[in-house]
Amino acid sequence: MKPLLEIDYKNIDIEDLIEIFSQSILGHTRPLFRDFSSKAFFRARKINGVKDDELEKTKSIWYPDWSEIKPEHYTYNRCSNKGENFFYASNSIEATVREMNLVDGDRLLIGIFKPNNSNVIIPSQFAGIEKIKKAETFERILSNHKYRSVKDMEFEEWIASFFEKKVSLGDECFYKTCIAFSKILLSSEDTKCLIYPSVASNSQFVNFGIKPDFVDEFLWCDQAFIYNVLVEDNLLSLIPEKYSSSEVNFDSHPKNWNLNWKENTQMIKLNGVKVYGL
Fold first, then answer.
1. Which sign, positive or negative, has the C-alpha torsion 274, 254, 58, 97?
2. Fewest CB atoms within 10 A around its CB: which of 69, 130, 238, 245?
3. Which of 122, 102, 114, 4 is nearest to 44 (CA)?
């Protein structure tokens, strides 16, 4: 494994990393959870400078369609290459908020996504098994997982180290390793989701990377919220501004359903604040 640690990850192409990693983990086995389901996925987006009329559809909180975005704004993400459509979410609002690198004065849009029927399952892979199985939701799923060999355990620790690495703004190129592993772990058409620890929440929660075709077919945005961010004395507060339920319209795709925004009352704005320690 030593030669792998000497790779110049900053300058290597993702395709070359995929080839190297694929060869390195030949024979490595991982658990595939075929019947995972979740009642809700939480997704967030900064909307600084975004006009209100651009937030009238659920498309505003859907995964971004990079074909509609100028290439100069493309960037690497934890599990996806530049310009690649991919859906990121978490299993809690707190994890979603912490992943956003928010500062005082930010405006934040949060959407709650739900499966379109109770039988929806998401065949999923994991990266960071030891951290994930400590999360309450996944304790039952992974508590009995046993590695087939010491080498399997070592490879999992190695893979997990990349997904647990904090990447600073401006250093997104260091996501290349995670992107390469994500493409390997999601290479089967039947595998739709990658579950990995939420680094920003110190692995108390998990993040989901979900293939867009699954999102388009099986998920819909149930509710959406707009918050104003206040950072003071090392505490981050979310001041509720507006809320909306999506307007169900079976004649159109769920990402084009209307959001009927309502202004929060002054009392709610003052008393309905969510606070997170930084």
1. positive
2. 69
3. 102
